[in-house]
């Protein structure tokens, strides 16, 4: 039974603040959230998850999932959705609270063209598709483009630190294979056929400096985010008090997941159980378009120069609905240690004012306590007693207290800490955590209405609408919609059945 939002302890409330603070508001984690990234979908990070593994027997691990390439239509052939071989995809971990990466897992991708040809009228002619026939577990001879990747672990500065290769625990190799996207059931035989095919690309891996092997998987998955996207951005054209029945506009979309499972002991430092995490993607500074590209696959440009970060994602929704439009590209290029430049967007958030404008006739009022110190505390430092490091530099990232035991799927609550489930958001983020509903309620000042609100710099009178159970029109998330085992995000939707 869910406990009422307004009856929670100060700790639970503070956690709610983190949700909101970091998410600031609503809707669609980070799909096409900044002007520049809309032109580069292959490096557009959509969601980032970090949680204690809740698969049976894996409680001593942390799972990190970075999703990229938003709004994938399952039928998006003939090229589908490969990752960018000219990009650098990274998952960063800060384990001492200084807002600087201590560990970076770096993923580089390669597209290998088999160039399958057919005899046509006495000539051998290359086919126009990425497959020439059926594909199954153990038989991908008909696959025309095979995507592979490597994983490096960098300790210290992401560009100048000590770099070591992550290797396949089975044979010591350094190259891994990404399964082809779910083209359709004729190509893979059935949904079960695709699941068996993709499962063979979950690898046990040796991570340098770790006493136990981890796991890695990269591949297309069903988009795990749930949001009433169209109506939300149409001036919140929905009923914010609807308990159910809302439209999930991502229900028919896929994404590409980069999933990594790492022993807790490899991520934490000394006696500090709290880690911070975020994902980034970078491109080379110079791109020269080749007017006469050579035959091959994806060879129409030359890349050079230093890496330039173009995508950043830690807590959900930040760039989407917190950062002002003029600074969205700047945020994507920034590092957590420099987040002071964006403080005004947290201390004086604009979303509550917009909600009041749109629903003021129904008596909805925005909070009046400025600066929003309730949000600053949770958003920039973590919540005391939950996931605040002993020594912390204020910065935006997803924070996880690895000493808090995971909750099994059947006992997870979609409202996370707000509902007494301390293994959920904002203590990390699991696929089944409904960050949208939590964020909306905190944005409108629920912390000011709860126990000991003075601890957050506000009182009930500062938040006239702080007790409203706001939603994105009732588009609800369920932990039952996700797998109970790595990589947790479910099988992608097929392009055809």
Description of the molecule:
By secondary structure, the chain is α+β, with helices and mostly antiparallel strands. It has one domain. It has twelve helices and 16 strands. The strands form three sheets. Strands 3, 4, 7, 8, 10, 14, 15 and 16 form an eight-stranded antiparallel beta sheet that branches. The longest helix has 14 residues. The radius of gyration is 23 Å and the shape is globular.
Name a few traits of the molecule.
25% strand; globular; alpha+beta; 8-stranded antiparallel sheet; 16% helix; 16 strands; 497 residues
Order of helices and strands: HEEEEEEEEEEHHEEHEHEEHHHHHEHH
Instruction: Write down the overall mean pLDDT.
Output: 87
Helix/strand-derived category reads alpha+beta
Low-confidence stretches: 1-28
Give the count of structural domains: 1
Strand content: 25-35%
| Fraction of residues in helix | 10-25%
Q: How large, in whole angstroms, is the Cα Rg?
A: 23 Å
- Total strand count, please? 16
| Total number of helices | 12
> What global shape is seen?
globular
Largest sheet: 8 strands, antiparallel
Give a summary of the structure in a few sentences.
The protein has 497 residues and is an alpha+beta fold. It is 16% helix and 25% strand. Mean pLDDT is 87; it is low at 1-28.
């Amino acid at each position: 039974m869910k406990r009422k939002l307004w009856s929670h302890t100060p700790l639970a409330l503070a956690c709610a603040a983190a949700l909101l603070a970091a998410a600031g508001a609503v809707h669609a984690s980070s799909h096409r959230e900044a002007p520049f990234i809309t032109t580069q979908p292959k490096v557009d990070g959509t969601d980032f998850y970090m949680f204690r593994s809740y698969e049976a027997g894996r409680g001593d691990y942390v799972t990190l999932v970075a999703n990229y390439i938003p709004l994938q239509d399952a039928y998006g052939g003939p090229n589908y959705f490969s990752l960018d071989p000219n990009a650098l995809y990274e998952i960063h971990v800060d384990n001492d609270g200084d807002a600087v990466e201590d560990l970076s897992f770096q993923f580089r991708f390669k597209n290998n063209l088999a160039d399958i040809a057919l005899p046509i009228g006495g000539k051998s002619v290359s086919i126009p598709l990425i497959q020439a026939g059926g594909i199954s577990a153990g038989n991908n001879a008909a696959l025309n483009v095979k995507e592979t990747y490597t994983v490096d672990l960098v300790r210290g500065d992401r560009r100048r630190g000590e770099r070591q290769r992550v290797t396949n625990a089975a044979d010591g190799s350094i190259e891994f294979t990404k399964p082809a996207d779910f083209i359709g059931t004729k190509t893979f035989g059935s949904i079960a056929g695709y699941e068996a095919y993709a499962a063979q690309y979950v690898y046990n891996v040796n991570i340098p400096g770790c006493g136990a092997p981890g796991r890695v998987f990269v591949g297309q998955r069903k988009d795990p985010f749930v949001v009433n996207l169209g109506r939300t951005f149409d001036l919140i054209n929905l009923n914010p008090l609807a308990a159910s029945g809302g439209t999930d506009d991502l229900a028919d979309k896929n994404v590409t997941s980069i999933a990594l499972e790492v022993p807790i002991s490899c991520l934490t430092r000394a006696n500090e159980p709290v880690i911070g995490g975020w994902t980034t993607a970078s491109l080379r500074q110079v791109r020269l378009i080749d007017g006469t590209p050579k035959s091959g696959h994806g060879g129409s440009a030359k890349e050079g120069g230093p890496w330039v970060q173009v995508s950043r994602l830690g807590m959900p929704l930040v760039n989407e609905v917190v950062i002002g439009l003029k600074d969205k590209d700047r945020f994507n290029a920034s590092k957590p240690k420099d987040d002071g430049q964006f403080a005004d967007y947290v201390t004086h958030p604009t979303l509550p004012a917009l909600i009041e404008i749109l629903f003021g006739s129904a008596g909805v009022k925005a909070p009046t306590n400025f600066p929003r110190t309730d949000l600053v505390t949770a958003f920039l430092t973590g919540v005391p007693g939950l996931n605040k490091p002993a020594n912390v530099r204020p910065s935006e990232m997803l924070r996880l207290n690895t000493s808090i035991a995971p909750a099994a799927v059947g006992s997870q609550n979609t409202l996370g800490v707000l509902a007494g489930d301390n293994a959920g958001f904002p203590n990390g983020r699991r696929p089944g955590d409904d960050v949208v509903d939590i964020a909306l309620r905190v944005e409108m000042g629920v912390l000011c209405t709860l126990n000991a609100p003075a601890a957050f710099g506000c009182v009930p009178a500062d938040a006239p609408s702080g007790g409203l159970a706001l939603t994105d029109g009732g588009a609800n998330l369920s932990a039952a919609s996700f797998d109970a085992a790595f990589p947790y995000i479910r099988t992608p939707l097929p392009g055809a059945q």
